[in-house]
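Quick start: what a row looks like.
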Amino acid sequence: MAQANSQGTVLFTRPQGQGEELVSALEDNGWKCIRQPLLKIHPFHTEHSQAYISIKQQILNLCDFDVVISVSSNASTLAVDWIDQYWPQMPLGINWYAVGPSSAAPFKKLGIEVATPLKNHSEGLLTLPDLQDMNLKKVLILRGKGGRELLADTLKSRGASVQYAELYERQAVPFENGELAKLLRQRQIHYALITSGEMAQQLAKEIGQDSALLNIHLIVPSERIAKIAKTLGFNRPYVCGHLKPENLLASLNILKAKNH
C-alpha cells in the first residue's frame, strides 16, 4: 500500500511509457510524480524512406557483424522487433553489448545474452576487456538519430569498422510559452529527473533564465549530463548513477535532508 504523498513532488520527464518502475517506487515511498515528457520517440516506420531501407538492410546483414552494441532502451526495443521479423533463428557468432540493464532487457525476448558495463554509459562500455583489441572487427551500433560519437570513434581507433543503425529520432515535446514554468510553480515541483543532455536543453529552453526555477534539483545519471546542466544555468544537478529505484530514492532522500 502506498504511503501518503508527503515527501515532495518530482517532475518525471522520460518519454511516454518509459520508467514506470521508477514512478511506482517513488509513489510507494511517498513521493508525488508529475509525468511530463520533454521528448517523444519517433521510430522510422515509413516504408521506402531512406532511413527505413537502411535499417532493413543492416538487420538483414546482421550475421556480417562481430559485435552489436545498443546505447539506449528505445534502440533495443525497436531492434528486437526488427530482428524478430527477419531472423526466425538468431545468427551465431555475434557478441552483444548494451550500455546498461534497461538497454539489455529487451533482448531477453530473443534469448540473446547481452554484456553490460558496471558504469552505464559509453565510457563504461569502452573499459570492457573484450572491446579493447578490435582489429578487423565489424561493429553495429544501435541508437537514435544523432548523438555522441565517442563510442564509434574510440572503437575505430582500436581497429574496428563501425556502422550505425539509427532506429528512431527524438522530437521535442511542444509547449505553449511559459507553460512548463507555470507547471513547476503551481505544483511546487522542486525535483526533476533528467536522463539526457537533450532533456536538460529542452527544460532550460522552456523555463528561460528564471533564477528560481534554475535552482530546481536536477537528478541526472552521469557527470557528463551534470556538466551539461551546469552550462545551461542549472545550479543543482545531482548525480545518482544508474537509474535504479533504490538509487533514485536515495538521491531524493539526500537532497531533501540537505534542504532541512
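That is the whole record. DSSP finds ten helices and twelve strands in the chain. The radius of gyration is 20 Å.
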